[in-house]
Every structure is written in C-alpha cells, then in structure tokens.
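<context>
A single protein, sequence plus fold
<sample>
Here is the protein in question:
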Amino acid sequence: MASKNSSPLADRMRPKTLEEFFGQEKIIGPGKLLRQAIASDAVPPMIFWGPPGSGKTTLAYIIANSTNSDFVQISAVSSGVADLRQVIIRAEQNKKINKNTILFIDEIHRWNKAQQDALLPHVEKGVIVLIGATTENPSFEVRGALLSRCRVFVLDRLSTEHIRSIVDRALADKENGLGKLKLKISDKVKDVISQLSNGDARVALNVLEYASSISKDINLELIKEAFQKSHLLYDKDGEEHYNIISALHKSMRGSDANAALYWLARMLEAGEDPLYVARRLVRFASEDIGLANSRALEQAVAAYRACCFIGLPECNVILAQTVVYMAKCKKSNDLYVAYGRVVADVKKYGNLSVPLHIRNAPTKLMKELDYGKGYKYSPDFDYAEEQEYLPEELKGHKYLKE
C-alpha cells in the first residue's frame, strides 16, 4: 500500500530549500551567519554536530542546491583516502570553471588520524569546501588541526512540534509523500509518532512508511508494531550520548551504585560500544579515586581487557561489576587537582631549565659544564637527602596535599 516510488519516504521528503526545512532556527534563521553565507555563496568549511535525524545531511544538500557547487557525498564508514583522491581530482577540474566542490563526509568521526590529515591541505587551499557530519563531540573525535579550520554548527534534536509538521507534510504530499494513499490516521496517533521519535525525523518517517505498507487505517497498535519492527524504542527519554556518560560518571563520583548501574544499562542496551564505556572507567579510576585506592585502576584496566576478549552481551556484567566497584570506592581527586595546578604553572612559566645537579651527564663536555654536579644519590642518604628537584622559579611549590 506504500508509494510506488522505490526510494525510502525519508529520502523522498528531504527538503530542497531552507524554507522547507524544519528546526535549527538558531543557525539558519533570518540574519544568522550560516544563512547569510549560503545566500552569498561563501560557505566556509564546517562541521555539523547533532543527534541522528536532526537534519545534518539535509542541510548539506540544501547548501549545495542553493549555491554554485558540485555536491559530493561519501561516508566515512565505507570510504578512505583513495576515495578522497578521486574527489580532489574532480574538485580541481571544477576549479577551472569557477565551480566550488562541496565534499560532505557523513560520520566524519569514523575517519582515523591519517585520513583526516589527508583532508587538511585541500581544505586549506580551498580546493574543497568540507562539510562533515557527526553525532559525536567533534572536540574529541575530529583532529584539532582540521577542527581549527572549520566552523562547528550544533544542531539540536528536533522538537515534537517539528516532527509533527514533518509527519503532516509527508501525509499531505501526493507527489513524494503518502498523500495519494488517503491514509486514515488521527491527530492522537500523529502525536504519538512525534513523541516516540525522540526528535529524529528519519525515525518518524520510517515508522509512518512501515505502517502505511501494512494498512490504510493507522492506529496506535500498528504504530507500536512499527516502532518495535524498526528497533526504534531503545532510547525512550532521548538523552544525548554525552549526557548519559556524564550521568554515569557523576553517579559513580557520588558513590551511588544503583544510579551508576542504571546509566550503564542505558548505554549498553542502546548499543553503545562497551570499550568506550571501559575507557571512561579507566579514566575515572585515576581522576576520581586515584591514590585513595590504587587498585581501582587495575580493576578498570582488567575490565577493558575482558571486554576485548568476550564483547557484548557477555561483558555487560563485567562492566556492571566495575561500575559498582568504582561507585563504592573511597574517592580522592587529589591527583586530578594537582595535575591541573602543574599544568597552570607549565603554561605560566614556560620551559624552565632543569637544575644542573639533576641533569643527565653522559658526555665529558656535559660534565665539564657541571651537568649532574652535586647530585645526591638518594639511596646513599636513606632517601632522606635535602635536595631541590624543581626549577629555581618553582622552588617550594606544592601541588599535592600533604
């Protein structure tokens, strides 16, 4: 009963202009920088960071359609440097006819260091206009050198009102949508679709399309089946990835093992990479427990290795054990605070000289220059020698609590 058009409804309903685009008013609303850049055909290299279904790919298409640009899309999951070379050849040919080339890289966070570095010279020279899309925090997942050359635009999760408008538009559109099917669907069912889609337009349209392929009478039971069939109910509250890992971290810091277990399960049951969680536990062991229980780091590293051995779903109980252990441990952030103080001094004082008496002196010349002269070998003094180890400018500085 679905449309005869073979492409998915979400693709057919993709907006072609900014006027058709729902949401993201804070970056493409009237007078906003990006909207002005599009209007003047002066689009900078940029990264779109936002949750699934918020319009990252659609916005890239609109930019290409609204400017004098050749649009090339690749996925970081299935492409690499060889594909980039082909794009650069194409872009260089476009330059000869004064045509820009927009290279849209979906899931750019999945490209490794070498692949991202390969982009740099072409972005710098303006051979391509890069638009990268990512659901991950670009501060962590995109190379600093590349990130510094791009404008980052943060896309928000779409509101239920935006999703409802998208659903209504798909139901009314007779050319690309489902308008010709004359579906029977109540406002209540539309609202349920909008709420359960968690701000993801693609989810809403996929569910609507699946339901329309089963029956012209779309009721709540059918919508429930459509969501389950599409495996789309795993994140009912719609929190973002980094909000949940933050909740896990803070729950362990606050010694609330029950809350920590809950947030762990939220991540794992949503399909999170267990090694990502394990890496965060390794960090937590030193940042929030530190010297209060040095065995915590051993437990975290052991958990990481165990996850490497057996993976999900078997490793879920291993991570649960480690999370509870971390939550119940005595806490100390002395190391974390001390390191922050050290970094502040490093930035303030720059490259201070190593005191001569603790310098290495492997050559005759170095010895003649007094490298190592007067050094007191600690074992000879029963480790009670009086000797300065910091640069003169930092003499007496204390970073750790006594």
Remarks:
- Residues 160-229 form a domain with the Helicase, Ruva Protein; domain 3 fold (CATH 1.10.8.60).
